[in-house]
Amino acid sequence: MKALASLLLLVPVAAMAMLAACGGGERTAGRIAFLSERDGNQKVYVMNADGSGAKPLTGGSGSDSSPAWSPDGARLVFWSFRDDNTDIYVTNADGSGETRLTDNPADDYAPAWSPDGSRIAFNSVRDGHGEIYVMNADGSGQARLTNQPGYAESPIWSPDGSRIAFTLFGDHGSDIYVINADGSRQTRLTDNPADDYGPAWSPDGSRIAFTSSRDANVEIYVMNVDGTGHTRLTSNAVDDYGLGSVWSPDGGRIAFTFRTNGGGDDREGESDIWVVNADGSGQTRLTDNPAEDYFPAWSPDGSRIAFTSSRDGNLEIYVMNANGSGQTRLTNDPADDFYPIWSPAGRR
Ligand SMILES: [Ca+2]
Ligand SMILES: [Ca+2]
Ligand SMILES: [Ca+2]
Ligand SMILES: [Ca+2]
After folding, report:
1. The pTM is what?
2. pLDDT 10s digits, 136-152
3. What is the distance in A from the centroid of ligand 2 to the CA of 157?
4. Could you say which ligand is closest to the alpha carbon of residue 331?
5. DSSP collapsed to 3 states, the chain
């Protein structure tokens, strides 16, 4: 079974935040893309939301990571380790038309669709240090947006497509920044020695959820998009590792993952999925077992949450109602299956 820590190396926080951008509000249905090692390499798969019809979308010997649906549901972008470095690829949702968008010896990764589907933000170290770039969705017009000391990562578009938030890892912890999509007006939103990371834009564009260790352990916070009004949403004194945040499509709730490594809890090294209302009330643990449970992904109508769990001995995709009831396994394969992402609402 793949350890959570190794998954994190393959799947930047931004990709999880991107799940929040796949909202909509129409019917729960559609399809779920995920990663699977059932063919030996880590590849992008897709299945119906009831678990039927699972099939690989990508081929070859590369190891694929962090697939993301285009806003119209017609394509998926992902990054893949091939030829000793990572590049960004796009495929049609039926598996046809796989196209390489970046082609250079440096690592290119963490692609994020703009809300209108016309552009893709991504990370690259092509200029010697980690920066945020953008390109047209066909790979043309690649341009660097950021240029500063440290390591910029996890680009996430504002819902109106005008700005991109990201995390900058420096010598003294990490902080969250925002920059206009044309590269102008870079603004720092957090400024403290602790780690602040994983920005996730609320569906209405007014707030950004993020993870921070500023209060001695990792918690979920929200702030206004101008960096004011920092508010802690969660209280998990014994937990020491956080992943998230993933907004519900209506913006009312945030799903996240907390991992315990002992610290007073009677279980060591396991994770569970929680939700909290966007005002900090109603913090609720949705999964509660000694296995790893993580990567929550809301259905487009907000009624269900897909997730990954090791509860049956290897990683499988599960789905539950948004209140944690009805936890049901969707995949059943001895190989690891993980990182579910729901297709956008109203599109197949
Ligand atoms: Ca590359
Ligand atoms: Ca900080
Ligand atoms: Ca668990
Ligand atoms: Ca499996």
Report:
1. 0.89
2. 999 999 999 999 889 99
3. 21
4. 4
5. CCCHHHHHHHCCHHHHHHHHHHCCCCCCCCEEEEEECCCCCCEEEEEECCCCCCEECCCCCCEEEEEEECCCCCEEEEEEEECCEEEEEEEECCCCCCEECCCCCCCEEEEEECCCCCEEEEEECCCCCCEEEEEECCCCCCEECCCCCCEEEEEEECCCCCEEEEEEEECCEEEEEEEECCCCCCEECCCCCCCEEEEEECCCCCEEEEEECCCCCCEEEEEECCCCCCEECCCCCCCCEEEEEEECCCCCEEEEEEEECCCCCCCCCEEEEEEEECCCCCCEECCCCCCEEEEEEECCCCCEEEEEECCCCCCEEEEEECCCCCCEECCCCCCCEEEEEECCCCCC
Ranges of residues in the chain whose predicted pLDDT is under 70: 1-29, 237-242, 261-269, 346-348
What are 241-299's pLDDT values in tens digits? 667 899 999 999 999 998 876 555 555 568 899 999 999 999 999 999 889 999 999 99
Query: Ligand 1 center to residue 110 CA distance, Å?
Result: 12
C-alpha 334 – ligand 4 centre gap (Å):
5
Cα(47) to ligand 4 centroid in Å equals: 14
CATH T-level topology, domain 4-342: Neuraminidase (2.120.10)
